[in-house]
Amino acid sequence: MERLYDAVNVILSLQNADGGFATYELTRSYQWLELINPAETFGDIVIDYPYVECTSASIQALTSFKKLYPKHRREEIENCIAKAAKFIENIQAPDGSWYGSWGVCFTYGGWFGINGLVAAGKTYNNCSSIRKACDYLLSKELASGGWGESYLSCQNKVYTNLEGNKPHIVNTGWAMLALISAGQAERDSTPLHRAARILINSQMEEWRFSSGGDNGSLQQELYDQLFCIPEYFSYMGPWRIPLSGTAGRLKLFV
């Protein structure tokens, strides 16, 4: 219990005045310092900026803590969550997207943005940010089903499909999890079933999933294939569709 209290103390201490959370410290200076960025490759590294991912993760952590210890620093935690949710709403782009800085890219940011708002108590019905985010993600689903976002989205900050409009199983998993959290299955499950079919058909004979390309991202220029991620998110997406028949078709991964 004391360790959880310590963790909450750290989270609360790292919230910026605008409600957002950065990666490891408060944002302590100004963006113009990027003019003297010494790196030839990476952008936005001179100071620590608040991110939708870090802010969403903090909301989700505090929400989970509240369920266990509802009386501990209750008012401070509730105020922190409310400010963090407002930050996520404020940084959402007019088209309903969030730029993801730690994964590729708008599907990743959308997953964190929606999950953070849902954890803060927002719903599709009472939150225009969630509705816009769902509309944005649904507009990017491929005609064949699923999502396939290129690393070029990170560089150019414009949603870009993979060459040949191929689906990517990690992007598909992220988008599915976001939409499911926002109640898409209750409104219209068709897009989710199309996406689940992509994941099912992407499973290889040895019951594993191919990484399908870059899914990790760092500071707009560094990309990586995180090999555990395809396994995890490819299973998480279909299993969370609250309808029978789809998830059961996935083979058990041992």
TrEMBL record:
<dbReference type="InterPro" id="IPR018333">
    <property type="entry name" value="Squalene_cyclase"/>
</dbReference>
<dbReference type="GO" id="GO:0016866">
    <property type="term" value="F:intramolecular transferase activity"/>
</dbReference>
<comment type="similarity">
    <text>Belongs to the terpene cyclase/mutase family.</text>
</comment>
<dbReference type="GO" id="GO:0005811">
    <property type="term" value="C:lipid droplet"/>
</dbReference>
<dbReference type="InterPro" id="IPR008930">
    <property type="entry name" value="Terpenoid_cyclase/PrenylTrfase"/>
</dbReference>
<feature type="domain" description="Squalene cyclase C-terminal">
    <location>
        <begin position="7"/>
        <end position="206"/>
    </location>
</feature>
<dbReference type="InterPro" id="IPR032696">
    <property type="entry name" value="SQ_cyclase_C"/>
</dbReference>
<protein>
    <recommendedName>
        <fullName>Squalene cyclase C-terminal domain-containing protein</fullName>
    </recommendedName>
</protein>
<dbReference type="InterPro" id="IPR002365">
    <property type="entry name" value="Terpene_synthase_CS"/>
</dbReference>
<dbReference type="GO" id="GO:0016104">
    <property type="term" value="P:triterpenoid biosynthetic process"/>
</dbReference>
<keyword id="KW-0677">Repeat</keyword>
<dbReference type="Pfam" id="PF13243">
    <property type="entry name" value="SQHop_cyclase_C"/>
</dbReference>
